[in-house]
Amino acid sequence: MNWILKGFGILYHIWFFVVVFISIVLILPFIYITSLRETQYHYFFKWMRRWGFFILGGMGLFPSVEWKFRPKKDEQYIIIANHSSEIDIMMTLALVPGCFVFIGKKELAKIPLFGYFYKKTNILVDRKSLTSKKNVLKRAAEKIAEGTGVCIYPEGGIPNDPERLSAFKMGAFKLAVEQGIPILPIVFPNNRKHFPDFTQGGYPGILKARVLPPIPTKDISLQNLNELKQKCFDLLDTNLEQMQS
C-alpha cells in the first residue's frame, strides 16, 4: 500500500507542475505586460491571486479558513506563516487580498517560466550572503513605501520537521518595527500533509488555515525585537499545535 501512495504522490506532484505551466501560459500576456513596470505591480498581483486560486482548484485542494481576522484589501501587512510546503505560496495568495510581495530563496528563480516572473516581481534572497540579506530588507522597505505589503516565512525555509516550527529569523520583525507595519500571522496546519516533498506522497483535500489578528508594531522599539519574535513564534506554535491535535 505504501508504494501505491508514494506512486500516486509522485504523479500528483508531476500534475502540479503541469497545472503551474498551463496556468502561466494561459495568463502569460497579462502577467508579462503588468510585470514590465513596478508601478503596474498591483495589476500583476490581481493576476497572481487568480493564479493561486487556479492552482489550488486544479490540484483539488480547497481552503477551509478560520477567520480570527479578515485582512483588509487596502491595508499593508508583514505576513508571516509557518512554512511546510510549496503550496503555502498559493494559500497565502488566496487568503490575503491586499497587494504584497514575497521574500523567497533565490533558487526559485531557476524554475522554468515561473522563476522568471517570481524573480522579476518579488524579492529573492541568498540566505548564505549577509549582503544579500541587507539588500533584501532595503528593497522590502522600498516596496512598503510604495504601498505594498510583504510576506516572509520567518523559518527561512521548510524545516526538517515541518510538523513543528523551526527557530525564526529576525528579518520579518526588524522590517515590521522599522516600518511600523502590523504583522499578520497565518497558520497552515496540514499543507504538508496534502503536499509534502516530491517522493513523500500527497493527495487532494481540504487545506485548513487560521488567520490571526494583526500584531501592531508602531510602539515597539528595535531593542525589543527578540521579545516580538518570541511572541510571534509562541503564537504560531500554540495555534499550530491546537489545529493539528
Per-chain topology:
Blueprint lengths: L1 H25 L1 H7 L6 H18 L2 E7 L10 E4 L6 H8 L4 E6 L8 H8 L1 E3 L4 H16 L3 E4 L18 H9 L3 E5 L3 H4 L10 E7 L13 H20 L1
Parallel strand pairs: 1-7, 2-5, 2-6, 3-4, 3-5
Antiparallel strand pairs: 6-7
Key attributes of the depicted protein:
single chain, alpha/beta, Glycerol-3-phosphate (1)-acyltransferase, 245 residues
> Can you tell me the overall shape?
globular
Poorly predicted ranges: none
Summing up helix and strand content along with how strands pair, one would put the structural category as alpha/beta
Domain unit count: 1
Helical content (DSSP H or I, runs of 4+): 40-55%
Strand percentage lies at 5-15%
Amino-to-carboxy terminus distance: 25 Å
Largest sheet: 7 strands, mixed
Q: What is the number of beta strands?
A: 7
Please give the radius of gyration in angstroms.
Answer: 17 Å
Task: Summarize the entry for a quick read.
The protein is α/β, with parallel strands linked by helices and 245 residues long. Helices cover 47% and strands 15% of the residues. It has helices at 2-26, 28-34, 41-58, 88-95, 114-121, 130-145, 171-179, 191-194, 225-244, and strands at 61-67, 78-81, 100-105, 123-125, 149-152, 183-187, 205-211.
